[in-house]
Records
---
Amino acid sequence: MNAPIIDPLQGDFPEVIEEYLEHGVMKCIAFNRRGTLLAAGCADGSCIIWDFETRGIAKELHDKDCVAAITSVCWSKDGHCILVSAADKSLTLWDVVSGEKITRTTLQQTPLQARLHPGSAKSLCLACPLSSAPMIVDLNTGSTTVLPVSVSDTGAGLPPPSRNKFSDGSPPFTPTAACFNKYGDLVYVGNSKGEILIVDHKNKQVRAVVPISGGSVIKNIVFSRNGQYLLTNSNDRTIRIYENLLPLKDGLKVLDELSTSCDEVDEAEKLKAVGSKCLALFREFQDSITKIHWKVPCFSGDGEWVVGGSASKGEHKIYIWDRAGHLVKILEGPKEALIDLAWHPVHPIVVSVSLTGLVYIWAKDYTENWSAFAPDFKELEENEEYIEREDEFDLMPETEKVKERRDCLRRYSLVNFSCL
């Protein structure tokens, strides 16, 4: 599509299903940093790398030791590596170019999500297991560092109250959401008490606490690409956007200064006071009519839009809001539940995964403005019948030849006359 003929006044968000990708049963997706490649984890344990320009398969990564479904995929910042977590409790780091497995480690619990450190440390990742607290995993050594998920009156990290029971003898635990900040020096943990904990993962220390109104379980927590906004999705059917008040770099240094300047004596209140200076509630999103739960909400690549999928069974609906809180579009797909989605880092494109394993590509329905390309071009709203003159398109070759010969003789005569 040529940029000059696209109406600049159209909203920069997707509107229709442009295409779908099909290969096995895909479960989860992730774009690389530039959006040129799309990784999809499959139910058979393989990871498919799609060339998003040609919509063809560029690479297939398959570990013969893994036959369980993939639970998450994550690209390294430079796009050279990809981290894959699977239902067999494994974490596998792949070299995308060579297709070789770099390292593989096995946890004690199934990782629902795993994210590589956003800095240069590709060996470190943040894993959120099904039935234990989030942990920092060193992929080279297999060592794990469990992060605190709540704060007692003494400030020690304790597990939140149980809401799930497991039959394998493991301690019951509510799955906890967590994510790195932009540069990876802090981890933001959303717990079952409805609190956001800002954690120094190197020292396993909670540095600030931000309570969420209602105290509902936080199911998802994710930063915008520029690191300026934080999104949470809670069990109270509300998506909340917080403005990040900490600097993108040296956040730990600022936290030290805030903690030192705080006059609160009680440790828990002190952490909340510091938290109030780290995050500020910016906007809340919910469907006040249907009161639906949300699934895998996230930001657009530029952070201007917020997108969330409906968690209702049997429907494939995607809601798009602007940052001001206005619902601008509801995308309705086939009658299949939505299990994952991602917004393209650069273009107004959303990719969603259905329960059947298909990947749908949602793009803009462009209206071509040809008058911007050719000012004398007249656009018609509908077809019009044109009535031609009787001889308008008649072709008379002999008559044309006679006329051309006569004109040529006349010009020749005028030239000779002028020479006299």
---
Amino acid sequence: LLGESGTGKELFARSIHQWSDRREMPFSIINCVALTETLLENELFGHEKGAFTGADSLQKGKIEAADGGTVFLDEIGDMPLGLQAKLLRVLQDHEFPRVGGTRLVRVNIRVIAATNKDLKRAVKEKAFREDLYFRLNVVNLLLPPLRDRPEDIIPLAEHFLARHMREMKKRNRRFSKSAIQTMRCYAWPGNIRELDNAIARAVVLGVDEEIFPDLLGLGGGKDELDEVDNLPYHASLDRFGTRILEQAMRRSNWSQTKASELLGLQRTYLSRLLKQKGIQQGTEDS
């Protein structure tokens, strides 16, 4: 899985697992950049009793614990070269020794790896093993940043809202029209992770049923968009829409078709609004 940080690679990997015939088996997550090489090796492969000072008992690693299920290797591009060789053995032979041991442990796992790095370049620079790259690169999926899939913003926001309300035991929360417009027009540099965090913040801090833009913590606070909620939708665009329209057009690379979908408007109505506001339309759709 390829994509910028926060694009939902873990969520996508978990979905693959949940929709597969392995869904009743474990799903293990291993972050390859969060630990030192020694700790990561122990996390992956476990250790035998007495393998090192303090190893008072046998401990299974996450690969062994996930036998029959799925192992998600996040940020695989940051895995040390020494461990890459050991991982390759698991993928090729389906077996490995625990740290400090010689007995081979056999496993049956699916491996899903994710990175935000260019692994082809890393291979050329000798920072990533070529044989491991080809072993992993069976099905290659690119997850686009959230700014390139604006149609997903509100459905994802609703999903996160429902989840956080359930986890925090909050009820009857909904997004105001101004909050929806703000989320649609925001660039989301942190991608899905930033959206998830923004919704969690709004649920924690909100006391009213409606969630307004300031609760999302996106840098703008309450502004003229808050006034949209007191007006009919089309009237709100007529009165306050210049900045919203400009942002939507930029987000859509000046495609009126894409911008109209983003704003939930008919394309002909959007075209009329652009002319009324004197907004330069840029490249027209064919």
